[in-house]
Design brief:
This protein has twelve helices and no strands. By secondary structure, it is mainly α. α1 packs across α7.
């Protein structure tokens, strides 16, 4: 166990130092995740003159929570893995005594801390513009949000990493992620809270992985009502298990394909 923790610490520190070399890019990455804050302004104005079930303040807090969860769950492993396979850089990593995926996990984990100052600055700017939306979540909401954020990142990562394994068979595995992202964009709660969806559509969506990547943790943070916490975590575990098993099967098949190409 100590050896595992030592390797995890070393990998995290190495990738954190690597990320800090690109602070300007990190700022742009954090800024690129500010779409929820832009959408918040749209829904804030709409809520002032419409009957949506959520108040303008609810919308501002919701989209701030969406911005926060997006900072914790952004994933790019498919583009890195695709490049490693195409350029042959995966081969030396296969000779190392750890699964190559842990390099990507360490990179993503370290990047969270590297972008944190920029995200906090944007949150402070948000409250300066919308002081009426300031609130302090309860301790239970914070703990549930933290747990949901970890689950959401793990689920988002395993889904994208599973799609990345198709790079063993195609040079454009990232195209799969592009199609998936369109569904994620409209069905996760990133564009609009699930409360804005028709009841029937919402009930179906709650059995898919999309709402639990954004809406579920955001709703927990701001304390929205009618959130089925137990169902949420169980659905996340179910989809996580499904993609994990699919991932391991593709990995075994993909390595045979990769070695067959002479790597």
């Amino acid at each position: 166990m100590k050896a595992v923790l030592r390797k995890a610490k070393v990998l995290s520190l190495v990738y954190y130092a690597y990320m800090m070399e690109y602070r300007a890019e990190l700022f742009l990455w954090a800024l690129s995740g500010s779409l929820p804050l832009i959408l918040m302004g749209v829904w804030y104005q709409a809520a002032q003159g419409g009957q949506f079930g959520l108040t303008p303040v609810d919308f501002t807090r919701y989209f701030l929570a969406v911005f926060v969860i997006r900072q914790f769950t952004v994933v790019w492993v498919i583009w890195e893995f695709e490049k490693e396979v195409i350029e042959g850089r995966l081969s030396p990593r296969l000779l190392q005594p750890i699964d190559p995926v842990w390099h990507h996990v360490a990179g993503h984990f370290s990047e969270r801390f590297a972008r944190l100052p920029f995200a906090l600055a944007l949150i402070a700017l948000f409250f300066a513009v919308y002081p009426q939306a300031f609130w302090i979540p309860s301790l239970s909401n914070i703990l549930l949000f933290a747990l949901a954020a970890i689950f959401a990142f793990a689920l988002r990562f395993i889904i994208q990493y599973t799609f990345a394994l198709f790079a063993f068979w195609t040079e454009r595995a990232s195209a799969i992620e592009s199609v998936w992202f369109l569904l994620y964009l409209f069905l996760s709660g990133l564009i609009a809270p699930l409360e804005m969806f028709p009841q029937g559509v919402r009930e179906v969506l709650l059995w898919t992985p999309f709402p639990y990547l954004v809406h579920f943790p955001a709703a927990l943070l701001i304390g929205l009502k009618d959130v089925n916490i137990i169902q949420g975590f169980l659905v996340m575990l179910g989809w996580g298990g499904f993609f994990f098993l699919w991932n391991r099967w593709l990995w075994r098949k993909g390595l045979k394909q990769y070695s067959g190409m002479g790597a």
